C-alpha cells in the first residue's frame, strides 16, 4: 500500500518510465510511512489509438530530460571552462546568485567575478537531489570545494550547496552558497 | 496524461490525501512535460475489509507528518529559544552542520557557538521545499537573515539556506549555509 | 464485452447516472455487435477530495438536463399555447424552420404563420430519440398530427418529424417536416 | 471528467476503436456538461487469452459496420439507380415510408411511385447523424433535394430528412419526409 | 504480484468478502509461486446504481453459504442422531457411498447399515478442506474415527476421509472411505 | 458479476494464464452464486519495466507446475514401476500413509508392503481434483482399483481415494484410502 497505477501514452523509454516510477514511489512515501517495498507502481501504456481526449487522439510529449543529469553536465562544462556547452543548457532569463555578489546573468560575468577570488575551484559531490514543483525542476548539488587560492595555496573541504531551477529542460536559475568566506575569515 | 490512480486504505485525512495527490502530480511532471492541468490523480480508498495481502487484512499506518510543517515549527521554536519544544522534534542521532563549525548534536552547543557571533538572528523565508527520498524526508528552507551584531548594529538581507533530513517524522540532520562571513568580510 | 468503467465525481443523481450508463451502453453497441446483456458499465464515484487535476480539486458540473424531457415539456407548452413557459426553454439565437416557410425566431411568428393553415394541431408521438454530438444535444420527435382544418373538418394520421438542437440545456433550433401539404394535395 | 476506460478484446481496427471512443465521448457529454476536452477515453485491449467468461475464452465479434457509411452507400446506389447494390444493403423485413404514400417494401415500388412525380431527384446533404439504440442503429440524413419536374423545369433547395434503421448492418426501415408537396402547392 | 481487483455489487458481509479474498489469494498461488504476502486482493464494491448490464441495473445474489460450515453442521447433527436437522441440509438427489456398501439416499438407510457394524462412531477432525468447481462446492473432512464395536470394546485412531458435494448450499453427495475393515482384518 | 482483474508480470504461458483464470473463476463462484457465465476474469500483463515495487523492478517467478499433472505423472510412473521417475517428483520429507500401514517414506517400502497383498493393482480414475492452500497444492485422485490377488484371481471396482500435498512442485505427502479390506472381508 499504496498501489499506484499510471496510464501513459506509448513513447517513453524504459529509463524514463523507471524515473517516473521511482518519482511516484517517493511521492507515495511522502505521506504513507510504509517500507519502500510496500509501494507498488504499475504503468499501463497505451498506443495512440487507445487514448482519446475531447474526441481526438493525442501524441505524447517527449519526456522532460533528467534534470539532475542536465545540471551535472552543466557543472562539468563550467569546470572545464567549456562555456559554449554550458550556455547551451541555459534557458531564457537565466540568473545566478553567488555569495554576497550582485545577480549575474552571463557566464562571463561569473568568470570575471571569480578571478580575484581564487585561481581555480572544483567540486567534490556528496549529493545531487532533484525534484519537481509544477513545471519547474529543482536540483540541489551538495559537496565540498577544493582548488587553489590566488597565492597558490591549496584548499579543500569547503562546504557548498548549489540550487538550480530548470524550465523545459534548461537551467534558468542558479543559487550558490558556500563556506569560502567563513574559511578565509578563520584562516 | 498521465492519469494516476492510487489505491489506499481508508484512514487518511483530506489534507493528507491532498498532500499525496500533489506529490504524485509533481512526480508525474518530473518526466511528462505536460501542463499541470493535464495531470489527473484519482484516489481509490478502501475500507480495511476490502484489502487483503497474504490472506490477511491490513491496517493503514498513520500518515507521515508534513515534513515542511515540522521544520517550520522547529525553526520557530529555535527563534523563540524554546529549546524543549525544539528538542521534542529531533530524532535519534541528530547532527547539525553550520558554516565552518564542528558538527554539533545538542541545541545548547549551537547556542554557545552563536553567542560570540551575533546578538540575535531571525529568518525571513522565501521558500520552503520538501520532498521524499525513500524513507527520508528532505526539507529546504531558503531566505534571508536579519538581526543584530554583537555591537548592536542591525543587519538584514543575508542569504541563507538550511537543509533538513527527517526520519519517522523527526529531524535527524540540519545543514546550514549562509553569507554571513562574506558579508562581514565585505563590511 | 466490452466492460466500461467510468470515473466521475460525486454529485450526480441515480437517474443521471442511469442515463449516463445507458448512453455508454448504446455507445458500445454502436461498434461492438454484442447482445446488450454482454455490455457492462461500472461507475466509480469519487468524492471531491479524491480527484485532483493540475494540483487542484475540482467540483462536478451539474448534470446536463435530459434533452428529451426538455423537448417534451416545450412541445406540451406550445400545444397549450403557454408561450411564456415555452420561451423559458429557448436559448440565445433560437431559430425554427417549418415546411417551405421562412426561418422564424419568435414563437409569435410561428403562431401567425400557422393561423391561415389550420384551426389547431396536436401531436401523437411514436418516438422521441435523443443523442449527443459534442456540446450539442439533438432530439427527434416522430409521430402523427391530428387537429382541425380552418373549415372545421378534422384530420389525423399526418406524419411529422421534428428535430431539435439544445445547447446548455436550452433549445436553439427546431426543424419541422410533415406531410400536411401532400395530404392536402391528395385531398 | 469523466474518465472512461473500456476493456475490449483484440480484433478491432484503429478506425473502429476511434468510432467507439467518439461514441463514448458523446455518451459522457450527454450527461456531464464538460468541455469535450475534459472527456478522456482509454481503451484497454486484451488478447483472447487474457479474457475469460464462465471459465472459457471468447472471440470478439467483428465490429458492426459504420451505419452512416452504409446509408450513404445505399443512397448513392439509389441515385445511380444501381438497384442490385442497393438491395444488397437491405435486411429482412425492409419497409419504406414516403410522404403520404403506402408503405413499400421493394425498391421497384418506389421507382414506380416516383415516376409520375418528378423526372429525377438528387440529394445535397447537410448532415448525416448516426446513433445506436440497443441493437438498432439509427441514421438521419438531412439536406435539400434538387432535380427536375416532369415538365423539365428544375427545382432545388427542397428540404428533406430521411431516417433509417439498421439491424446487423443492414437497412430494415426507411422513413422519408420532405417539402416537395408544400413547394408545389406554393408554386 | 499478482494484484487482483474484484468488482462486486454491495451486499456481501465482511465475512463473505474475506472468504472471497482468501479464495482469490489461493487461486493466484495455484499458478504464481510467490510468498502469500506478495498476493494482494482489492475489492471494489458498487452500489446497485453504479453497475449496469444490458442497460439494466442488477441485484446481487445472496452469497453462497460457507460449504465447510454446512458440512460440519451436518456431521454434528448426524453424530447427535438429529436426523431432521441433518436432512434439512440435503439437496435433491442426495446420494451416499460408504465402503463396499450399496449407494444409499436416505439417512435412515445409513443408520440401518451401520447398526450391525459398530455400537457408535465419532469423528476427530484433522482437516476440513473446501473448494469450488463451477457450481459445485466440494468439501473434504479428514481425521480419525473413535467409538465402540458391538462387543463393547473401544476403538480409535481409524483413519477416515469424507468427500461432499454441495449445490446451491445443500449437500447432494457424500462419499466415505475409512480403514475400519483393514483394522478389523488386522485385529 | 463479479469482474476480476489480475495484474501479472509477463512471462506466463497461455496455459498457465488459463489455469490462473479458471482458478480465479472458481474462487469467485465459492462466494458469489452466479452462473459461471457471469464471472469475468481479465488479465492485465505488464512487461518488467512497467512494474516496480520498492523502487526496483521485479522478475516474475516461473509458474508453479500444474499439481494435478504432476500427480498423474507420478502415479503413471508408479504403475509402470519406474521408481526413478517417480522419485524425481518427490520433495524433501515425503511421507506416505496407506490403510492401517505404518507411515512410509521410501517407495521401496511401499512395494515391499504391497507384495503380500496383491499381485498387481491399477487405477481407473473418476476424478482428479486440485486446489491450492497457501503454499501447499492439494490433489485428490478418486476412482476404482483393478488388478489381481496373489492367487491369480482378478478384482476390480474397488473404490479408492488418494490425497497428495505438493510444495514447490514436488509431492511431499500421499494419503491413501480404499475399500480393499472391506471387499476382502465381504468375499
Automatic annotation (TrEMBL), chains A, B, C, D, E, F:
Family matches, as InterPro entries: 4-OT-like_dom, NTF2-like_dom_sf, SnoaL-like, Tautomerase/MIF_sf
GO MF entry, a single one: isomerase activity
Ranges where the 4-oxalocrotonate tautomerase-like domain occurs: 2-56
Pfam families per the UniProt record, alphabetical: SnoaL_2, Tautomerase
Domain of life: Bacteria
Domain SnoaL-like: 71-173
Keywords per UniProt: Isomerase
Name of the protein: 4-oxalocrotonate tautomerase family enzyme
Organism lineage: Bacteria, Pseudomonadati, Pseudomonadota, Alphaproteobacteria, Rhodobacterales
Amino acid at each position: 500500500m499504496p498501489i499506484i497505477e499510471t496510464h501513459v501514452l506509448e513513447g517513453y523509454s524504459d529509463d524514463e518510465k523507471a524515473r517516473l516510477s521511482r518519482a511516484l514511489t517517493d511521492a507515495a512515501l511522502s505521506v504513507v510511512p510504509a517500507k519502500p517495498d510496500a509501494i507498488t507502481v504499475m504503468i499501463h501504456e497505451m498506443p495512440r489509438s487507445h487514448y482519446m481526449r475531447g474526441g481526438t487522439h493525442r501524441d505524447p510529449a517527449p519526456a522532460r530530460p533528467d534534470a539532475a543529469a542536465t545540471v551535472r553536465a552543466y557543472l562539468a562544462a563550467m569546470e572545464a571552462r567549456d562555456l559554449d556547452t554550458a550556455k547551451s543548457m541555459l534557458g531564457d532569463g537565466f540568473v545566478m546568485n553567488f555569495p554576497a555578489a550582485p545577480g549575474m546573468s552571463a557566464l562571463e560575468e561569473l568568470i570575471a567575478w571569480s578571478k580575484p577570488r581564487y585561481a581555480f575551484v572544483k567540486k567534490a559531490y556528496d549529493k545531487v537531489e532533484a525534484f519537481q514543483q509544477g513545471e519547474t525542476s529543482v536540483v540541489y548539488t551538495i559537496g565540498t570545494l577544493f582548488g587553489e587560492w590566488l597565492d597558490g595555496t591549496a584548499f579543500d573541504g569547503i562546504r557548498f550547496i548549489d540550487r538550480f531551477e530548470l524550465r523545459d529542460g534548461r537551467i534558468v536559475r542558479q543559487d550558490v552558497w558556500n563556506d569560502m568566506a567563513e574559511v578565509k575569515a578563520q584562516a
